[in-house]
Please model this.
Amino acid sequence: MAAAQGVRSADLMAAGIVDRVVPEPEDPAAERDEFCRRLGAALHDEVARVITMVGRDRRALRRNRYRRLGNLPGC
Model:
């Protein structure tokens, strides 16, 4: 169903909707702590990247991203 709707992580990445995909382990329950650490590190990196950008550049990137959303294939 996710593939048909185009909402798999790879689809969202290709469409520019997400900046990064943090892979999930085969057995999330077995690697819960490690996955949470990787997810936290990814979030930290992305927030650090955004807050170090010049406000004008950050707004331009966000504006361009939102403008593209209505022009995605299949929309």
Remarks:
- The two ends are 17 Å apart (CA to CA).
- Helices lie at 2-5, 9-14, 32-51, 55-69.
- The longest helix spans residues 32-51.
